[in-house]
User: What shape does this take?
Amino acid sequence: MESRKIVIIGGVAAGMKTACRLRRLDADVSITAIDRTSDISYGACPLPYYIEGLFENLDEVRRTPVGVLRDEIFFKNAKGFDTLTRTEATAINRDQKTIRVRNLDSGEQQDLPYDILVLATGNTPIVPKLPGIELNGVVALKTMKQAQQIDTMAKTAKSAVIVGGGLIGLEVAEALIHRGIKVTLLEMKDQIMATALDFGIASLVHREMRKHGVDMRLSESLQRIEGSGKVERVVTEHGSYSADLVLIAIGVRPVVDLAQDADIDLGVTGAIAVNEQMQTSDPCIYAVGDCVESNDIISGRKVYVPLGSTANKHGRVAANNISGQPERFPGILGSMAVKVFDISVARTGLSAEDALLNGYDAVSIRTSAPDIAHLYPGSKPIVIKLVADRKTRKLLGAQIVGPGVVDKRIDVIVSALSMGATVDQLAQFDLSYAPPFATAMDAILQCANALRNKMDGLVDSMSPAEVCQRLEQGEDIFLLDVRSPAEFDEVRISGATLIPLGALRNRLDEVPRDRLVAPFCKLSMRGFEAQIVLQQAGFTNVRYIEGGIVAWPYELEM
Amino acid sequence: MESRKIVIIGGVAAGMKTACRLRRLDADVSITAIDRTSDISYGACPLPYYIEGLFENLDEVRRTPVGVLRDEIFFKNAKGFDTLTRTEATAINRDQKTIRVRNLDSGEQQDLPYDILVLATGNTPIVPKLPGIELNGVVALKTMKQAQQIDTMAKTAKSAVIVGGGLIGLEVAEALIHRGIKVTLLEMKDQIMATALDFGIASLVHREMRKHGVDMRLSESLQRIEGSGKVERVVTEHGSYSADLVLIAIGVRPVVDLAQDADIDLGVTGAIAVNEQMQTSDPCIYAVGDCVESNDIISGRKVYVPLGSTANKHGRVAANNISGQPERFPGILGSMAVKVFDISVARTGLSAEDALLNGYDAVSIRTSAPDIAHLYPGSKPIVIKLVADRKTRKLLGAQIVGPGVVDKRIDVIVSALSMGATVDQLAQFDLSYAPPFATAMDAILQCANALRNKMDGLVDSMSPAEVCQRLEQGEDIFLLDVRSPAEFDEVRISGATLIPLGALRNRLDEVPRDRLVAPFCKLSMRGFEAQIVLQQAGFTNVRYIEGGIVAWPYELEM
Assistant: This one.
């Protein structure tokens, strides 16, 4: 009996993972992976760090942790399956169960028969059709070749414009700054990572970018690129920026032509639709990785969030199902993390805005806290925003930013969200504690308790954005700074009145009873305490400023 | 109407947290905290780091993150309640609802009436009644005064003996080594942290301690301490160790005399028994912090694991219940983390041994993996041991050790355990990924998948301990090293045969079919692959060595 034939189109993360796992589960099945390029099984996520110069040999992105190159020979000898590189799939014949492939070097075409076909066709950068987009020096970053190109250009470039404030835009901006290049970042929305972060959190990232010299041009969009042969400048509706290098990083779209031509269903996001077994509308065809859309675990909606972490999971699930071991992929939370100069920012689940759009009665809070015991060397603050549903008290999402350890806390929330935890359950998690790793009440537990206090009506509070908006609208808010005089001297919010928390109970007559009082401190804890003191003294119009000075994304007096 | 009186005995973490929260919830209640010492509200966990010299002013352990000293005045002015220091509670009169207190300076006694009493009497170090224990230079570490004492002695001490390989013993051993003192660590069990870690994980800690010069004396117990006035040497059943300083760190016991004298129920562990509302057998008396026993969430058994993180949670729960806001404390997982020189070790839930003792059909696995993308600077390995129940597939516990980031992964498992996750659910967590923070499949997800492979019968494997034991018993195991020749040259397990994974399919005739074959590599992945290759080639007696060279705690050839 002839062995079952599995053909996989796409030889990067999801495709190769599917092939490897398939072989482990089944010695006899015939497995062939094909890829248009010869740079198979490379990691795209580290490419910005190559440009930054953090590792020297670009091939590293194709090596295992112990340095073995993941080429066709490796996959043949160590993993036990065949890979055809420089081979393009041009059509799927679902009736005959064959795919037409063409060797890009010889031009030779052939039909490969399959019993099961796996589409792992990935994504491709979106490149807008604007004047000058074809000029030399205008690139996207997706392939190893493009990384090499940018690295070469960066050797002589004096100024660069990055179009798009997503993950790749931020990472490459940092890389080029470290290489001494003047960087302008152009983002048509009023914030970076607009679909991932709420404005207040994004604003703290903007501050960090500016601090390190990135010229942040928000709410400004690319009109055309100018130059003779080679890029010289970028023109927006507001100005013109000289550039030897332009990175187009406005997003990616799934590669779905093959699927579409074969009448395989696409989803609402435009990516390939799959069921929980990673099967497309044709049960003999699976799809994995960056070409498929995902189920958002919280909202239940379809989303398109292509990430290497998801691609790997897809590969395992698809291979299991193909081998007759049923497994379902539950979906994603849209978890992301990115280092931006000296801070990290991470998010998971729904943002406050998304939660409202999805019909939740969402309550959110920001807190600031040290990441580890404040007296242990290296302790740094983080700002946490937590979103929960008022009715069920279930967590909906989180965003964390700061110089301290952010990824650990986001992964705690990822775990909590994956299991449907309430904010009350989170607050009781027995997280590990020792001074080098956490505070006795970890920052994330403090934030959960702060959110419970807000949900339970013990206190009310305002985001920095709300405070700022009200002030701009001319509202006469009494900004009550309850820090120490020494802290006040160092840095303060313009127009605030200083009454240290310890003195507040005796100086209540200095606080107006006819206006909104907004107490705050460095983090948020004394501000919260001050609100309690005022409420207990009969003040009825008090709302502390969440996250204090550390989370305040606007100007400060120094 | 007179206000309700709350009296709290014990002014450190749990007591003060209870008082602070109570005041926030209720402006009118009368709150008095009393403490025997004047060092109230200090953090005991950072004391070893003071001895190490990581911060200069001991008072820091009593300061808030912004530097305010948490003394009586702070609690009065900022937190709004009274604290009586140097005041000892000598008896509880439950009928009259009063406690008898004595001022330790004036000797004056009085009866304080209470409506609700909160016991936060903490723990005290266990000091064995052995000859010489009273000598100068023999100390425990619990109070600020003792930390000061050890710091002073360390200025001149040449050698120290630490009795007990628990958290404090390990931390102080490191502190004293950093101060140039010769350190011997005496532990009567055959491993450090015996109730918290399995032997194989503990062995990796032993290696790190030895590497940094700690003379590890395991399975050896203190017999007597000798010296004239001042300690000179420590004598065990195996030898004698000179010492200018002896730290007794064999454990702590709850302080329960007051409760016991008042006929308040103690639990099976000897600590005060409380319900989920933190109420003792007398509904008007609550108990919180290190004097109470906890419910182990996984096993349902009562345990005594006093930790600052738990104490803080207790305080909030007790205060809520006292104020009429019902809340329950669900229990603990025994989560712990400790830094030991250049590695970290953390654990949560049940160890493999405990799981078996508790009647689970426990399956466990060890994996080794880089903590972040291997090509990102600073990537370091970690070894993860995961324990799950074969029947329900629920996670039971984890232990993680290594130079890489350990605390993040243990907190993911804490979150998973808190919500009753299965290993299959864990494997699908959408953890955040970017090269500076994780690998595309995070180490903890890799470990979950490895455990699934084992539970599903895809492969079988052995712990390093099992391999070692079988070899010692004379079993003729074929140790198959599937790394590269370069890796083999650098370091290897004695007696192993090298066949690189990529060559294995063509060199199967070099592998015996009549003996147990144990493939391994640096981490565990190629070892696992090799097992698949062998099984698919008809080998029936193959079990890879979990965690590879990185998790191998025994001697290696270099």
Summary: Chain A has a mean pLDDT of 96. The radius of gyration of chain A is 26 Å. Chain A touches chain B through 107 residues (CB under 8 Å). Residues 308-322 of chain A form the longest helix (15 residues).
